[in-house]
């Protein structure tokens, strides 16, 4: 009886330790996903700062896309999208050896964006919606109206980030040692003044 009781306590202790490790892993994945969403938002704002604001605002009107941020209330509202490849292309043009998410360097012993022993991968996309007036003069702009061609607009940037297990090369699924993969998804929004347009 005593041996059975001790065995049950031991099994319970091992199970509790495993659950604690799993909870820490989920918390870390959630934090990484939020950081990825913030990175996507910063990269999108940098895109506007690279003299591309006019092109994206014009694309919203001339070639509107279907955005998840609009589908519930305004499915036909003007929208433009930036995907991970678009952001990576701009980063690569200025910094050839830098990627949005760094892969783990196994031979060099350098951790990737998601840690040293991580098999996680990230993705991000940005939706640009709700183009409208700024509502007030932009700092540094001409208040006298002598340059009416210089205009600014306020847009909403909705960034969706996802962190999920990377199945690896040749893997059939995203299961890791019999444990179902968990995908973490975060969305953040920012109102940004862009221009000149």
Question: How do you describe this structure in short?
Answer:
The protein has two helices and four strands; from the N terminus they run αβαβββ.
Write structural notes for this entry:
The structure is a single chain. This protein has one domain. 21% of the residues are buried. It contains two helices and four strands, in the order αβαβββ. With 197 residues, it is an alpha+beta fold. The chain has helices at 2-62, 84-94, and strands spanning 79-83, 120-132, 153-165, 184-194.
Write the layout of secondary structure elements.
Elements (H helix, E strand, L loop, with lengths): L1 H61 L16 E5 H11 L25 E13 L20 E13 L18 E11 L3
Antiparallel strand pairs: 1-2, 2-3, 3-4
List keywords for this structure.
single chain; alpha+beta; four-stranded antiparallel beta sheet; 2 helices; 4 strands; 37% helix
In what range is the share of β-strand residues?
15-25%
What quaternary form is this?
A: single chain
Helix content: 25-40%
Distance between the termini: 80 Å
